[in-house]
Amino acid sequence: MLCLSYLTKTWGRCPRSLIGGIKSMKNKELLNTVNALLAGDKGLLAMDESTSTINKRFEEVGIPQTVEYHRAYRELIVTTPGLGKCISGAILYDETIYQATKAGVLFVDKLKQTGIIPGIKVDEGTTGLAGFPGEKITVGLDGLSQRLAKYYQLGARFAKWRAVIAINAVMPSRGCIEANMHALARYAAMCQKAGIVPIVEPEVLMDGSHSIKKCFDVTQKVHHVLFDQLFAQNVNLHAVILKPNMILPGLSCPRQADIATVAEATVTCLLQSVPAAVPGVAFLSGGQSPELATAHLNAMHVKYKGKLPWALTFSFARAIQQPAMELWKGNDENVKVAQEMLYHRASLDNAARRGQYTPDMEKKFD
Fold first, then answer.
1. CATH code for position 340
2. Could you say which of 121, 201, 203, 214 is catalytic?
3. Is 24 inside a domain boundary?
4. Among this protein's residues, is 243 annotated catalytic?
5. In 3-state terms, what secondary structure has residue 90?
6. Is residue 307 among the annotated active site residues?
7. Domain coverage including residue 261
8. How many domains does the chain have?
9. pLDDT tens-digit profile of 62-92?
10. Which is catalytic among the residues 243, 307, 336, 362?
């Protein structure tokens, strides 16, 4: 069998039929990965906090901010008994993908052993967008193809890139939306070329006093530009997962919305802006409490399950991890109870995917 690296070096001399066969194999692998990530009632766990973010969260609960404590916390996550029953994929950070358990098992291998597909965050954060005061652009495209090839060899089969869109009286500008969605589309094209499924995350932030209608309008516009850019970059929509915000009023908006209103607004926005070719939507929690994020997802499934063109699932970070982190506090003697809480929260999100979550389930851990 010919080595792919050899074929890459001699690409210009490959017969058209062979090139087509290689593309077909990559597409098949991408679709297999997508299907596995969206299977059943499982969801994704975002454990891809940057060093600065995890240090901030550790500081809030009194955990030392060191590389070893980062490693120990992530070992707690990947060794949680039964986690593979709830989680289909875990998004790692560059630091984490090289780390191992105390027994010397790489986290990537540990995840695979439990049936969880390893993924990787590949953006390099945000910086100010020139010409647009107060707005951000996500960076990390330079050298991305080489990094993706490395991550693929390490076992990652999907990736994530987050764009940040803020709302206020004058934002977001069209320039900010277009710049960020173009970067997301280029990232997605590079991922698919590398055999990695791209998760595209255009997050409209909850910060601010804007109304739920403003969030709806901005999110819809962002999605329209995103999918226009994905089409322009020849991205296969059948091998993409969208990771959007739910449609919510700003955190400081005086008029908050009930669970049913958020669920209806979110699904309506998606129906008006997300092509049916996209296989799945994996929501971010975006600063919601664990209970609210789960309840909103559940309400969508209660009302719309079986009526939508794409799967609706979760890709939560704090909404799954935070209660466990608060129980752990960096102490070895708390690992077991923290793992039990982590599994509990993930299982509640599974129930929400089935439309079977109730607030009473929260009490089962007390």
1. 3.20.20.70
2. 201
3. no
4. yes
5. strand
6. no
7. 37-365
8. 1
9. 999 999 999 999 999 999 999 999 999 999 9
10. 243
